[in-house]
User: Fold this.
Amino acid sequence: MRLSCSVLTAVLAMTTFTAAQTPAPAAAPKAKPSAAAAHTVKSVAKPILAATPPMGWNSWNFFAGKVTDQDIRNAADQMVATGMKDAGYVYINIDDTWEGDRDASGVLHTNSKFPDMKALADYVHSKGLKLGIYSGPGTHTCAHYAASLDHEAQDANLYASWGIDYLKYDLCSFRTDVMAAKAPDDKAEQMKLMIAAYDKMGKALAASGRPIVYSLCQYGWDAPWEWAPALGGNLWRTTGDVQANWNSIYDIINQNAGLAKYAGPGHWNDPDMLEVGNGQTGRNGEVRLLTLPENRAHFSMWAMLAAPLLAGNDLPNMKPEIKAILTNKDVIAIDQDKLGKQGTRAYVDGEVEVWTRHLSGGATAVAVLNAGSDRTSNHPFHLDLAKAGLQGPMKGKDLWTGKDITLTQNMPVELASHDVLLVRVGK
Ligand code: GAL
Assistant:
């Protein structure tokens, strides 16, 4: 669905404003700058929030509604102890179910699981990490806790007073409270209402005076990649909720193919949080964990997609092989590449896909993903570099074995089911 004229005009006006805040390449001044020029230099030097995709951990995928203050403190401790902080993870994000009731002045209080949010923020900050929180534009969150409708500025100021650094804003009850109630059967009008609600919170966060990363969570409805950056959105979910099984992960990879042009420093497609290390309970109560190839492929493809890397596993009980995946610095470097160019799917050959991503300094990341069966482990896939827009031979590094590798035209690639070959070639 496209934006209507009036919304588009407003959105474009805001785009111009955002662009004016983006630092321009520095040029050596020849003469002493005038006062006005000095002022300009000062304002453009403001750092971009989320200049690379945000990295951290979020409570939902493992704890869901059970998360407590202690779990958040433990996650912060583990982030440091496991080396994840050193690998680049920064945000510790509390998802749904921290909210209590509003008092007579409309001020929102925490519930008994989170006795003192300011103290929690201070604790997380004392570890050199940042704290994220969750709300939504409706009356209620998805787990039926209080959300921000008609209290946007009050809530944004409250978050700032606590020292919150990141807000995930989830559509949830706004769909029924406002969209369906005010504009039944009118999808274009519903879209305008939704954009206005996200704009309202974007403005409230900006007015709070604290840099707070703004994460839109509305499941990719009405192409948020087209309008979210103009509202100050630093990331926007592109799909429904991820689940800890391969079909869900692969569906999401598929749904993000084609969105590369919308991502860049300060504004990212968000294919949802990581399920690395997680699993699901089957019908008979058995836990089916993602396999190691699946964990590797999931993490590799999120890096190719320049996705936010928000781990969602049980950090205090993380197995060494899962820690090794989440802290693979070469793979993280692909995700965090400062050019911010999201990878694209170069070609598909049956169940095998070849993706490429342009990196700073003229390097390239190449991912060969076996999305299906393990047929390529006994009938190797042959890599067609020309089809991928590359020219061999190309020397590089296999980012999962750490070994040198040379990519050549038609080279055989053996991959187990749901496994990946991830290579960095070039400078
Ligand atoms: C969903 C959201 C999830 C999680 C959950 C909490 O709408 O997509 O990531 O935040 O709500 O209730």
User: Anything to note?
Assistant: The radius of gyration is 22 Å. The pocket of beta-D-galactopyranose is lined by residues 60, 95-96, 141-143, 170, 172, 217, 241 (CB under 6 Å). The longest strand covers residues 352-358.
